[in-house]
Amino acid sequence: MSYIMVDVESDGPIPGDYSMICFGAVVVEPGLSRTFYGQLRPISERYIPEALAVSGFTREQTLQFPEPAEVMQSFAEWLRGISKDRLIFIADNNGFDWGFINWYFHHFTGANPFGFSSTNLGSLYKGMVKDTFQSFKHLRRTKHTHHPVDDAIGNAEALLTMKDEMGLKIRW
Asked: Domain named Exonuclease: which ranges (predicted)?
């Protein structure tokens, strides 16, 4: 079993109508050295300039990115190299991140290597501390930059802290 922390940047709120611009993933394990980064050409003419601006890219830059099918196939291959066992998708905002990754996998490769479920890091932390008003974000060491690999690493650091210092049981 391998936990894969994922972060997505997009140019709008939903997949299909809008595009996933880039995403990052990291295997949650000591060292956090196994990462994946993908940039994807937009799939739609629609975009929200303010949403796109968060990624740090211009529309013109994104139009030069690789085809989504290529990127998603590369991501699937990378994931196959991580583990033959179950892959656990985990994200800070899994409703958003999972939605894009799941849609893109099904649309461009025909299947999602993560299966049909995901885990929300924030909800996990709230349950651990038994307070729905608490946030895990103080456990990040890597600055939250909106580069998806940085953000995935920061979130993975928080999960490792929950494991190592707070007693969360995680099977690798």
From this structure: 5-156
* pTM for this model (two decimals): 0.96
3-state secondary structure the chain: CEEEEEEEEECCCCECCECEEEEEEEECCCCCCCEEEEECCCCCCCCCHHHHHHHCCCHHHHCCCCCHHHHHHHHHHHHHHHCCCCEEEEECCHHHHHHHHHHHHHHHHCCCCCCCCCEEHHHHHHHHHCCCCCCCHHHCCCCCCCCHHHHHHHHHHHHHHHHHCCCCCCCC
Q: What dotted CATH number matches 2-164? A: 3.30.420.10
At 13-58, the pLDDT tens digits run 999 999 999 999 999 999 999 999 999 999 999 999 999 999 999 9
